[in-house]
Amino acid sequence: MSALAPYVGKAVVVITSDGRLFTGILQGYDQTTNIILESAKERVITPDAPTEVLDLGLYLLRGESVALCGLVDDEIDSQIEWDKVRGLRLGETKKLGR
């Protein structure tokens, strides 16, 4: 059983290896961690402007770009004033080679 199985049908947050942040309802995934999000949104957080939220609808994220996937705590998320959030862009993640 995949670690993502309990998340199907629930709100998740996904951070990609290039630092992008997505939220949506996890509809499916496969063995390479390709992820299908329903009602997907991308939150674009910058240092100088309000957080921009892009509505994407049904969205597929390639597994090779997924760095993190976790459940959204709806209570906490609803209390955050996203239009006031500012921050530097996340750096890219790096694969550790052996």
Q: How would you describe this structure to a colleague?
A:
This protein is mainly beta and 98 residues long. The chain has one domain: SH3 type barrels (Roll), CATH 2.30.30.100. The chain has one helix spanning 74-79; strands at 11-16, 21-29, 35-44, 52-61, 66-71. Strands 4-3-2-1-5 form a five-stranded antiparallel β-sheet, with no helix packed on it. The longest helix is centred in the C-terminal third of the chain and has 6 residues, at 74-79. The protein is globular. It starts with 10 loop residues before the first strand and ends in a 19-residue tail after the last helix.
Q: Structural class per helix/strand content?
A: mainly beta
The total domain count is 1
How many β-strands, per DSSP?
A: 5
How much β-strand is present in the residues?
35-45%
Number of discrete helical segments: 1
The coarse silhouette is globular
Mean pLDDT: 90
The CATH top-level class label: Mainly Beta
Strand order of the largest sheet: 4-3-2-1-5
CATH architecture term: Roll
What is CATH's topology name?
A: SH3 type barrels
Radius of gyration: 14 Å
Flag low-confidence runs.
Answer: none
